[in-house]
Amino acid sequence: MHQRTLPRPAAIVPALAALLAPLLSPVAPAQTATPNAKTSANTVAATEPETVAIAARLERLTQALQQTPDRIPLLSERGDCHLFLGHFKESVADFEAMIALDPRLDAGHWRLGIAYHFNRQFEASSRQFAKYHAYDGRDRENGLWKFLADANLAGIDAARQRMLEYTAFDREPFPLLYDLFAGRTNPEAFFADLEARGVLKRPLAAFFAHYYCGLWEALSGRPDAAREHLSRAVSMFPADTDGGPGYMGRVARLHLAEGRSGFPTLRPGTGPTPSIP
Question: What is the pTM of this model?
Fold first, then answer.
């Protein structure tokens, strides 16, 4: 889960290593393919040609699963295709089906937590990222996603009270991003610090800085600033660029698309503090 690129076999349950291989390279487009009719017009997890290719791959996976419905690798890849096409309910269903077939996949399944987020199942998303924390206790990016879920449920103050604790150093820029979400710094000081230390010269670090600062701005009620940061993050890497953010680049495109309708998954809640780990 570290770096949240297209899933790395070393970062997840070993049984997932082989099944994620198809997503580590671009899907070959089918000449006669057309996007699934349910694809959201606001979804930009991929460029238009890639969307056609992903939709074609989705159709082939669905056909294969009709013959072998218990194939975890097929469910895994189809769940990703659904997510990138904006079919969030279907993505959740495929990822949950994987875990039902092999419960050992549960704790490491951060992609399910993301699917829950976009499907507005925030309590389930928070629980999933809490499980992942027990699986990998140094990944602050996981903690940011749990924060997003908790803030949607009960507000920013409640989410800060429930932030996961980290002691080991994490990759840049996540330690300072965690401080930003915790209220220990602000966006201006955040970027000034990264600039002074040369962190923003690293394209991948700069991508994550702008992406998650964009999410913070949206959650804080500043949609214009959020869209500016998200647009900058997405523009840094064409989809599937070698060495780029991979999976999280597509997820960033989903959030940027959400900005057109006011960031519906980034609105602080006002309910009671959720009864979650």
Answer: 0.84
Structure tokens at 14: 């070993």
Give 65-83 pLDDT, tens digit per residue: 999 999 999 999 999 999 9
Q: Exposed, middle or buried: residue 199 (CB in 10 Å: 0-12, 13-18, 19+)?
A: middle
DSSP state string for 203-231: HHHHHHHHHHHHHHHHHTT-HHHHHHHHH
Q: How far apart are the first and last CA of the chain?
A: 20
In the chain, where are the structural domains located? 2-261
Q: How far apart are CA 31 and CA 120, in angstroms?
A: 35
Cis amide bond preceding 173, omega within 30: yes
Q: Which CATH superfamily is domain 2-261 in?
A: Tetratricopeptide repeat domain (1.25.40.10)
CA of residue 230 relative to chain centroid, distance: 13
d(CA 78, CA 57): 8
Q: Is 193 helix (H, G, I), strand (E, B) or coil?
A: helix
Residues 191-212 have pLDDT tens digits of 999 999 999 999 999 999 999 9
- Helix, strand, coil share (%) of the chain residues, nearest 5: 65, 0, 35
126-129 LR contacts (CB < 8 Å, sep 24+): 126/150, 126/153, 126/274, 126/276, 127/276, 127/277
Question: Whole-angstrom Cα distance, residue 64 to residue 169?
Answer: 43
